[in-house]
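If you are new to this repository, start here. Below is one unmodified record pulled from the training split, so you can see the exact layout before writing a loader.
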Amino acid sequence: MRSVPRALIAGLGLIGGSIGMALRARGWRVAFEDPHVTLEEARRAGAADEVGGDADIVIIAAPVDAAMEILRTANGQQPTTSVCGVMLPLREVADERRLTFVAGHPMAGSHERGLASASADLFRSKKWFVDRDEALVARLIDDCGATMERVEPSEHDAAVALTSHLPQLLSTALAAYLGEQDVIDFAGSGLQTFLRLAASDASVWSPIVNANRANIVRHLEGVLRVVRQILDGDSEGFTRAQELLRLLTR
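And here is the target side for that same chain:
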């Protein structure tokens, strides 16, 4: 490996661009591949130095369907890691190809997208889940300011279906349904807060939903069960919700 690590980021959007900015600030050399971003744009944003070439580590920061295709066609043995919202489908492809691969997922993001929304501080003090130990991946995470945590891919995907994917779906679904109703004059700040995630783009979320559908559906049924209980007069749901919020905000 070079004395100064060289990373190749596949996808220079919000997450990939933020990784590039953070690594360059710590002295890494960063290359990228992204048909939607020019070298001039990448350099101006401080997210990359050059396009393509060999690297000590490859970071796949593309939507999960594109990430899986990258793994299916990968021919290098250098460490490769992902930053997608799911782990298990990528782990399965990598194992089939016998790749040196770490499925990863930083718990950081935004409803905004693209390189223009990237920030070198996006991962600071955030959890970054991985399913394998690999020295250069650990260094990458540390240099991005995040905290690495090991997790099994199936456990991760089941959990984020509830903590990340279902909130996105509920926000998007309600916004789409409201768009069919003539009630916008009655919308207040509470609704706007709830619908913040609805600004997210289908190109990012549709592949995640498709890849983790079974886990999402299971949790959706659970949420609907609580809704029905509240509609039937059971106020216990409010109590449990308030207890959870106290834990999240303490």
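Two things worth knowing about this chain: The beta strands are 6-10, 29-33, 50-51, 57-60, 80-82, 101-102, 104-106, 127-130, 147-150. The two ends are 44 Å apart (CA to CA).
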